[in-house]
Amino acid sequence: MDIDLTPKLAKQVYGGDGGSYHAWCPNELPMLKEGNIGAGKLALTKNGFALPRYSDSAKVAYVLQGSGVAGIVLPEKDEKVVAIKKGDSIALPFGVVTWWYNKEDPELVVLFLGDTKTAHKAGSFTDMYLTGSNGIFTGFSTEFVSRAWDVEESVAKTLVSSQTAKGIVKLDAGFQMPEPKQANRDGMVLNCEEAPLDVDIKGGGRVVVLNTKNLPLVGQVGTGADLVRLNGSAMCSPGFSCDSALQVTYIVRGSGRVQVVGPDGKRILETHLKPGNLFIVPRFCVVSKIADPDGMDWFSIITTPNPKFTNLAGKVSPWKSLSPQVLQASFKVAPEVEKHFSSKRTAEEVFFPPPN
After folding, report:
1. Cβ neighbour number for residue 336 with a 10 Å cutoff
2. What are the phi and psi torsion angles at 147 (to 5°)?
3. Rounded to an integer, what distance in angstroms lies between the CA atom of residue 67 and that of residue 89?
4. 248, 278 in Cβ contact below 8 A?
5. Engineered SS bond to 123: which of 26, 130, 157, 262, CB 3.0-4.6 Å?
6. What is the pLDDT of residues 108-156, one digit of tens each?
């Protein structure tokens, strides 16, 4: 496999006093284009407001830092105003209109990962803004806008031209935005740091998986997701997606090592991961990670709404199901060697605590 899998950091696309938007470029991370995956990151300063927009792609949003408010309008539905905080995950189906606001934190940072098969450009999100210097209606004549909105042409001109910023603005400190409602979070937002754990290995790590059961809108987005928190010096079992899905991983906290092995048993990636890194594991390739002493957390999307994985070590691995004779023949070893191998990892699964 010749494609470059080296993890990359996002680069700023635009920004100002209210904040900035960053994205990963398919030219620098070729697997984005190869896998039809987009990745971006919104950072809002205090009182920063990301203007209403819709995207050419379905996405999963994950709040990396801070707290704030989001407005979400599903097609032909009323606006849902929700409070968001660190650890929140939101499924954003195709056609949804969103806005984002940081009311009081020093910085609100939101990660976006999603499928770009409907996008203008493979591997990139294109947002279409409703207002601002690059808003959709700046491209229409005043006559068209006034007739569409049923207002005088002078009013239409004022509405279209008054907001001169692009994408992100900074509101006055006293400006009153709509207040969120707790009920709006139901079925719309799942906090991965507070949700019931799907995997919890003492000394190893913990996982929360987003799927159609705990966040139904994931089904409309077409991607599942998970938050993995690997303990210090612990290891994540070598494994692969057994339903041909790609795994797109963003390092949230901590650091560690990763190895990816592809066809013909060739190691196609070996590197040290740090916060902000994004990398993609190709279909059927096997990946494993070992955290540094401070541990490592990552958020991933998997290009199927209900992902399935096969782990190649631990008590749930295929090794535990294969007969001793098959193992002896496959490894070409004596029974006593096979017995030593098969008697290991009888308790641990998915994550392995550091050696004593």
Report:
1. 9
2. -70, -35
3. 12
4. yes
5. 26
6. 999 999 999 889 999 999 999 999 999 999 999 999 999 999 999 999 9
User: Which one-letter amino acid corresponds to residue 94?
Assistant: F
How many angstroms separate the Cα of 280 from the Cα of each of 121, 123, 284, 340?
18, 12, 12, 35
On the CB side of 28, how many CA atoms lie within 13 Å of its CA? Answer: 14
Contacts of 176 (CB under 8 A, 6+ apart): none
CA distances in angstroms from 82 to 71, 106, 183, 209, listed in the order given: 6, 19, 8, 21
Locus of tokens 């996982």: 207
Residue 323 CB coordination number (10 Å): 9
pLDDT mean values, one per 10 residues, the chain (356 residues): 88 97 96 94 98 96 98 95 98 96 97 93 95 96 97 97 96 95 94 95 94 90 93 94 84 98 93 97 93 98 80 83 90 90 78 88
Phi, psi angles (nearest 5°) of residue 34 = -60, -40
